Amino acid sequence: MARQVSALPIGGKYPKPIIHCTGRPETGKTQLAISFALWLNSLTGKKKVYVWPTDGREHEYAQVIGTEHTLAPAANPLDVSAVQDEINADLRAKVFTEVGLFSVDTVTHIYRQAATSNQLKGMTGQGSSGHALKAVTMMNVVTIIMAVNLPAIVITHVYDKSDHQNLQKKEERESISDTEEARWKLAYNIKLETGKDDRGYYVVIRECRERPGMKPRLLRDTEGGMFRTMPQRIMRYLYEAEPPVEEPKGWAEFGLNKPFPDKGAQFRQNAVREMINYFQVVDEIKFYAFGDPAAQPTKKNGDPGVNGAANHALNAYDKIAEAYRETGGRNLGELTVKLKEYTEAKVQKLIEAYLDSKVQAEASVEATQETLPGVPGPVGNSGGAAYANL
């Protein structure tokens, strides 16, 4: 019998996340998966998580989510065919009814097992067993994910040093081949990468099917946060923070290899102009880092006031440029990156504060069963207040 399709199936808010999560070892990939399981539980009411544990980490899920809510295949996790047969049987037995997240943690070991196996060549007596068997194995993994028809996170690993100074430049080597990842893109809709540096853990949002052409975005975890708030932040950024409808010309192109124009005082002027005019749109509201440059503030007595956006941006520029020069920095491309990161982070913080206020307002409505007059506007987004509140 056919089912009715919901456009936004997860809590009536978001598309179903099918996530490919990658990252270097010990950068929190499993903790991110656990956090998604907890978040989906709160959103859908489904308390269980199903883990395909080739990395032996199912106990980490059980410790947080509870042994009674953590499921795993009884079959050898490296035997894809056996796991597939068991999952098909579990689907018929309605085992997945209360499961909120399907986690493959990790594909790396399945892929390695397939890569070193000679089973296919032994059966056929011809062909390259490595490439053919890997392709079949990865196809079966995707088939299982789609058959379960649940939010899913599939974990792989990154090897070699990652370049996160330029988030759009990807130099690392995945634990699966580029060919297999290209095939996976037909299944997953979000690509994430976890990482860790001297400032702590972070997640880079690499790709999103619903946001073609999206620039990679780095979100830092709070100290000791275990990525617990990261799922909400990721989904809000992808599906609630709309791309700018009038993004300042050239903003996306400025960076390490294309600094803000000119040098000296002219560079400062051009950089500040770009910083002032950059904004993001959420709920048809423009969020500027230093206040709306077109706003007309008024004094308490009603007289015209002074728009402080330019002064706040100048102060921010001087502070960042001075700190950069004190470290011996002289590269305008590097300074451009620092100025852009600072500006975008301020806008993102304003958006997160606004979205949090929406969530609190919605929670208040649910608690009191009363209708509120409206959702509050962005905090401190008039004139120079945005800078002051940060």
Task: Describe this structure in a few short sentences.
With 390 residues, the chain is α/β, with parallel strands linked by helices. It is built from twelve helices and twelve strands. The protein is globular and about 70 Å long.
Overall description:
This protein has 390 residues and is of the alpha/beta class. It has 2 domains: 18-239, Rossmann fold (3-Layer(aba) Sandwich); 264-388, no CATH class. It has helices at 29-44, 58-65, 80-92, 107-115, 119-124, 129-148, 178-184, 230-239, 264-277, 309-326, 332-368, 385-388; strands spanning 18-23, 48-52, 70-71, 99-104, 152-155, 158-159, 173-174, 190-197, 200-208, 217-220, 279-282, 285-288. It has an 8-stranded mixed β-sheet. Helix 1 runs parallel beside helix 2 and helix 4 packs antiparallel against helix 6. It is globular. The termini are far apart.
User: Reading side by side through the largest sheet, how are the strands ordered?
Assistant: 3-2-4-5-1-8-9-10
Tell the overall outline: globular
**What's the number of helices?**
12
The CATH superfamily of the largest domain is known as P-loop containing nucleotide triphosphate hydrolases
Structural class: alpha/beta
The CATH architecture name of the largest domain reads 3-Layer(aba) Sandwich
CATH fold-level label of the largest domain: Rossmann fold
Number of domain modules: 2
- Provide the low-confidence segments as ranges: 374-390
> What average pLDDT do the residues reach?
82
- In the CATH hierarchy, what is the class of the largest domain? Alpha Beta
Distance between the termini: 54 Å
Query: SSE order in H/E notation?
Result: EHEHEHEHHHEEEHEEEHHEEHHH
